Amino acid sequence: MSKTKSKRYSSMGDQIFDVCNYIFMFVLILFTLYPFINMLALAFNDANDSIKGHIYLWPRDWTIQNFQYVFSESNIFFATFISAARTIVGTVISVFCTAMLAYTISRSEYALKKFVSITFIFTMYFSGGLIPSYLLIKELNMLNSFWVYIIPGIIGVFNMIVIRSFIEGLPEGIMESAKMDGAGDFITFVRIVLPLTVPALATVSLFVAVYQWNSWFDVFLYNSSRPHLSTLQYELMKILSTSNTTASAADAFANAQGNKTVVTPTSIRATMTIVASVPIIMVYPFLQKYFVKGMVVGGVKG
């Protein structure tokens, strides 16, 4: 009788814990998502009505004029194309090169393994600074070029550590079998290692893609005089930095559309935030399961 009673109370305690846990997670998710939902509500709400305030989770006066104004910018579509191109190209090249480096450092027969690892980790704590970096880019003739977005950040040390930790957890016998069959290091890396490290590669790909998509400072430093190399985030930055003069431009846009609605700087900022965030948010669900697995393995092995 006492054992049955104990199990009942234990079960009741577990149920209370589950309910409290669900409530806590729901509140946490709400606080995490609220800024984005609020921006979404402001973006779809009439700008004049938004000035009154008290817009939280739902638009009070629906409109798409904020998006019409943002997409009326002449360079916005080409800037989006450049952002997408640098994200795709930069992610593929960076992940592949980082994985090759991680595979090399993970090999026990590599004599300079420790030295190379320490050298790369050293760069995580110390850098040359902004001016030396700019002078280096200039000497390499990468100013005013698309490749300045790709080459300088082609290797990420943290990403290399994540992939290396994953590779070190692979069965050594698989790679030894490939070598016994006559496969070289590159063939072993491409045909054996890469397919087995998909979770780590997906995790690193997400890191690199988010960085490439959100980056704008390198555009400002190296390509600000080349409008055809501008990115979506740089265009967003320019709109945000000129928010004091945006209202007059919005008035002109409203007059051209034949209405009296004014697009305010606040509504423009919210709209641009949504436009810049949606592509990455759409990609994340497809990589989530790999992202979690890759981070767990990298964290345990690291």
Automatic annotation (TrEMBL):
Q: Which SUPFAM superfamilies does this chain map to?
A: MetI-like
List, in alphabetical order, the GO biological process terms annotated in this UniProt record: transmembrane transport
Which residue windows are transmembrane per the record? 21-44, 76-103, 115-134, 146-167, 188-213, 268-287
ABC transmembrane type-1 domain residues:
80-287
Keywords tagged on the record:
Cell membrane, Membrane, Transmembrane, Transmembrane helix, Transport
Q: Which InterPro entries match?
A: MetI-like, MetI-like_sf
Q: What are the subcellular locations of this protein? A: Cell membrane
Which GO cellular component terms are attached? Answer: plasma membrane
Q: How does it sit in the membrane?
A: Multi-pass membrane protein
Name of the protein in its database record: Carbohydrate ABC transporter permease
Organism encoding this protein: Paenibacillus arenilitoris
